[in-house]
Design a protein that fits this description.
Distance between the termini of chain B: 144 Å
Largest sheet of chain B: none
Number of domains of chain A: 1
Structural class of chain B: mainly alpha
Oligomer: heterodimer
Number of strands of chain A: 2
Distance between the termini of chain A: 83 Å
Order of helices and strands of chain A: HEEHHHHHH
Shape of chain B: rod-shaped
Number of helices of chain A: 7
C-alpha cells in the first residue's frame, strides 16, 4: 500500500471540498467597480458604483427636500415638519458651537450633514454601495474642511493664526514641548475625521456582510440566529449612520469655530 | 448584501487587504465627491433653504402677530368686564332703590287704610251709642207710663174695696216702692 498516494488523494479531496464550499468575502461590498471609463487629458473621472451612489444621494437629498417644501404651509405637513426639523437641528448645532457668525456657513454644514447622513443610510439598502465606506471620499471631505478652516483662520487673523499653536497660560519652558504637540494634533484633524467615519462604516457593513454570509450558507435550523443578528445590526447601523454624520458635522463646526475664534 | 455575499461565495475576489486602499479608483472619486457635494450644496442653497427660511420666518411673524392679537383681545375683555361689573352695581343699586320705594309706599298705604278704618269704626260706635241712649230714654218713658197706669189701677181698686186708712197707706207705699225698684231694674 502506498500511503503517500492515499494521503495525496485525501488532500485532493479536501481541496475539492474546500473549493466547492462558498468562500466568505465580506469586503466584496466595498469593491469599487468602474462602469464607464472616462479620462480626458489623463484626468480620471470614470463613473463607478461609488460615483453613481453619490449621485443617487444627491438626488435623494435634494428630491426629499424639494418634495417636503413643494407647497410650504404655515401649518406644516409631515414631510415639511421633518425638513424643518432637519433645518432647525443644523441651525441649533451651528448656534451652539459657532454662534451668530456661523450663519454664513449654514449651507455648507447643512449640505455636509445630509450628504454624509444619506451616504451612510443608503449604504444599508441591500445591493447598494456605501460611499462613506471609501476612505478616499471621507478623506476628500475632511481635507476640504481642513483646508477651508485654515483658509478661514488665515483670512480672519492673518499671521496671528499661528498663535493657535501656542496654548495660553503655559510656562514658557513648556512651549518647545507643547507647540509641536499642538501642531501634530492640528494636522491629525483631517485624518481622525475621515478615518472615524470610514472605519465605522466599513466595520458595520463588514459585520453585516459576515452575518448575511452565515445566513445564506447555514442550514435552516442555524440560519435564523445570524439572520436575527442582521436585523439587530441593521437597526444599529441606522443609528450609527446618524451618529457618525452628526459627529462629522459637529467636528466641522468646531474646526470652523476654532478658526474664527482661536479658542 | 445577501446578493453580494453570494457573489463573493461564488469565487474570485482574492485581493489582500481592504478594497478601499486600491489607488486606481481614487482620482475619479475625489473629483466626483467634490462635484457631488457642491452640486448638492448649490441645489439646496438655491431651491430648498430659502423656502425653509421663508416659511419659518413667516410662521414666527404669524405667531408674534397672533400673540399680540390675543393680548389686545385680553385687554378688551378686561375692559368689558369692568364695564359690565359697573353696570351690575348700578342695576343692583337701582333695584334696591325701587324696592325701598315700594316698601315705603306700602307702609303709607297701610297706615292710610288703618286710619280710615279707625274713623269708620269710631263713627259707627258713636251712632250706636246715640241709638242706645235713645232706646234707653224711650224705654224709661214707657216704664214710667206703665207705672203711672198701674198706680192709677191700684188706687182705683183700693178705692173700690174701701179699705181702712192703714192698709191703704201701706199698699200705696209698697206699690210706689216696687215701681221705683222695677223702673231701676229695667233700666239696667
Amino acid at each position: 500500500m502506498d500511503f503517500s498516494l492515499i494521503a495525496a488523494a485525501h488532500a485532493e479531496t479536501a481541496q475539492q471540498v474546500a473549493g466547492a464550499a462558498p468562500k466568505m468575502d465580506p469586503l466584496h461590498h466595498f469593491q469599487v467597480v468602474n462602469y464607464i471609463k472616462i479620462a480626458p487629458f489623463g484626468f480620471d473621472i470614470s463613473i463607478s458604483n461609488s460615483v453613481v451612489w453619490m449621485w443617487i444621494v444627491v438626488g435623494v437629498v435634494y428630491g426629499l427636500f424639494r418634495l417636503a417644501m413643494r407647497h410650504p404651509t404655515l401649518v406644516p405637513g409631515r414631510l415639511q415638519s421633518v425638513a424643518e426639523a432637519g433645518y432647525l437641528f443644523v441651525e441649533t448645532m451651528i448656534n451652539e458651537i459657532i454662534g451668530h457668525e456661523g450663519k454664513k456657513f449654514f449651507p455648507i454644514i447643512f449640505t455636509l450633514f445630509f450628504f454624509v447622513l444619506f451616504c451612510n443610510w443608503t449604504g444599508l439598502i441591500p445591493g447598494s454601495f456605501t460611499v462613506t465606506s471609501q476612505l478616499i471620499v471621507t478623506g476628500t471631505l475632511a481635507l476640504c474642511i481642513f483646508a477651508f478652516s485654515i483658509f478661514l483662520g488665515a483670512y480672519h487673523h492673518g499671521w496671528k493664526f499661528l498663535g493657535f499653536f501656542v496654548p495660553h497660560g503655559l510656562p514658557p519652558a513648556l512651549l518647545p514641548l507643547m507647540v509641536p504637540i499642538e501642531i501634530i494634533s492640528f494636522l491629525a484633524r483631517p485624518i481622525s475625521l475621515s478615518v472615524r467615519l470610514f472605519a465605522n462604516m466599513t466595520a458595520g457593513h463588514t459585520v453585516l456582510g459576515v452575518l448575511f454570509f452565515f445566513t445564506a450558507t447555514m442550514a435552516w435550523f442555524g440560519a435564523w440566529l445570524p439572520f436575527g443578528f442582521t436585523v439587530v445590526f441593521t437597526g444599529m447601523e441606522i443609528f450609527i449612520g446618524f451618529i457618525q454624520a452628526y459627529i462629522f458635522t459637529i467636528l466641522t463646526c468646531v474646526y470652523i469655530n476654532d478658526s474664527l475664534h482661536m479658542h | 448584501m445577501i446578493a453580494s455575499a453570494h457573489a463573493s461565495a461564488g469565487g474570485a475576489a482574492a485581493s489582500s487587504g481592504l478594497p478601499q486602499f486600491e489607488p486606481s479608483v481614487f482620482g475619479s472619486q475625489i473629483f466626483w465627491t467634490v462635484v457631488s457635494f457642491f452640486l448638492l450644496m448649490a441645489l439646496l442653497k438655491k431651491y430648498v433653504l430659502p423656502a425653509i427660511v421663508n416659511i419659518l420666518d413667516s410662521r414666527a411673524s404669524r405667531i408674534a402677530e397672533d400673540l399680540q392679537k390675543a393680548e389686545s383681545a385680553r385687554k378688551e375683555g378686561e375692559r368689558l368686564l369692568v364695564n359690565y361689573q359697573g353696570q351690575m352695581v348700578a342695576a343692583r343699586q337701582m333695584a334696591a332703590q325701587t324696592l325701598e320705594e315700594a316698601r315705603q309706599d306700602a307702609i303709607r298705604h297701610r297706615e292710610a287704610a288703618l286710619e280710615e278704618l279707625n274713623k269708620e269704626l269710631a263713627k259707627k260706635k258713636n251712632a250706636a251709642l246715640v241709638e242706645i241712649e235713645q232706646a234707653k230714654n224711650k224705654a224709661m218713658e214707657e216704664v214710667r207710663g206703665a207705672a203711672v197706669e198701674l198706680s192709677m189701677l191700684v188706687a182705683e181698686k183700693l178705692i173700690v174695696k174701701a179699705i181702712n186708712a192703714e192698709d191703704a197707706n201701706r199698699m200705696v207705699q209698697e206699690a210706689v216702692k216696687q215701681l221705683g225698684e222695677g223702673g231701676q231694674a229695667s233700666l239696667h
